[in-house]
Amino acid sequence: MTTEVLWISAAEISALNIPMQDIMERVEAGFASVGRGETEMPAKIGIHPRENCFIHAMPCYVGGEDLAGIKCISGYPPNPAKGHPYITGLMVLCDPATGLPLAVMDAAWITAWRTGAASGVYARHFGNQDSASVALIGTGVQARTNLLAMKEVFPRLDTVFCQDISDEAMARFINDMQPLLPKAEFVACPDIPAAVGDADVLITCTPIVEAPERPVARSMIKPDCLAIAVDYDAALNADVFAGGHFTCDNFNQYTWTREQGGYFRNGYPGPADIDADMGEICSGAKEGLRAGQRGAVLMGIASHDVMTAALVHEKALAAGIGTEVKL
Ligand SMILES: NC(=O)c1ccc[n+]([C@@H]2O[C@H](COP(=O)([O-])OP(=O)(O)OC[C@H]3O[C@@H](n4cnc5c(N)ncnc54)[C@H](O)[C@@H]3O)[C@@H](O)[C@H]2O)c1
């Protein structure tokens, strides 16, 4: 027997022009499914062939939606200097009835967009609707999709504070993103305090490292700033979360990574300090909070990938995009 698998490249996915709102809806449905206990989603496991580098395996069965898949995703900080992206990988969408692979696709696009979407879903439940400014620390791929998601959530967004160790990366970011938010003022900031001091929303997107410097301290930000770490514990000092409302995307994955993975130590919230995970929020078991000290660590969970890959697969089939290859 031969089986055909649909190969969908990064350029093909990108050409589908899937709106951020559609991805946010799928990511939210995935969160809700996790919250209702319908998914099988072990914490992501990884190998570390080089210092500060990871290759993660992220399987998930989203029961209510009957979708299954697994992502193999690498993060290599030295890659940009070699002309490769920091994040690369493959996503395999499987038929839950037979286990056969249905589609194999680029996972960098999926990772970029579903991660921005997850921040958007968090902000949808926890954001103050009057928020007008966002600070982005680390203006690479993630900063772009996270900003696109904030644009969907905060209609009054008019100021984007940017900070990056590379002036060139910051200039590229502003050049790429200004046309997508034409009315917003983009401010290239010389250092972190200048970037975060007046921000209503703060999102950190720097490389995850084994010995984090955590340069953003609570004293630098507004008391009611909505703080989102996309980069594990690399940028936000533990005091950013201390005493406030703390959310993670998934209780099991956060606590497993804290206990087994070596991240989120030295003052980061422990299991008893987690006020909610996004599964609880999106399934309606707990409610968001729109004022006061609020922060989240959104590590990225495999339900996002399966839900987003299924959306890509549907759109690719409808548009006749992709290449059938034999197994
Ligand atoms: N939570 C998730 O679901 C998820 C998903 C994908 C990526 N990530 C993480 O998001 C982070 C960003 O990924 P990316 O794909 O945008 O990477 P990227 O390489 O495109 O961008 C990272 C940017 O950070 C800048 N930078 C490095 N050190 C810095 C510092 N100390 N201060 C300010 N800027 C600094 C770099 O110059 C670069 O522009 C990584 O940690 C990655 O692992 C998280």
From TrEMBL:
InterPro entries the UniProt entry points to: NAD(P)-bd_dom_sf, ODC_Mu_crystall, ODC_N
Pfam families for this protein: OCD_Mu_crystall
Cellular component aspect of the GO annotation: cytoplasm
Transmembrane feature ranges: none
Record-given protein name: Ornithine cyclodeaminase family protein
Organism from which the protein derives: Pseudodesulfovibrio cashew
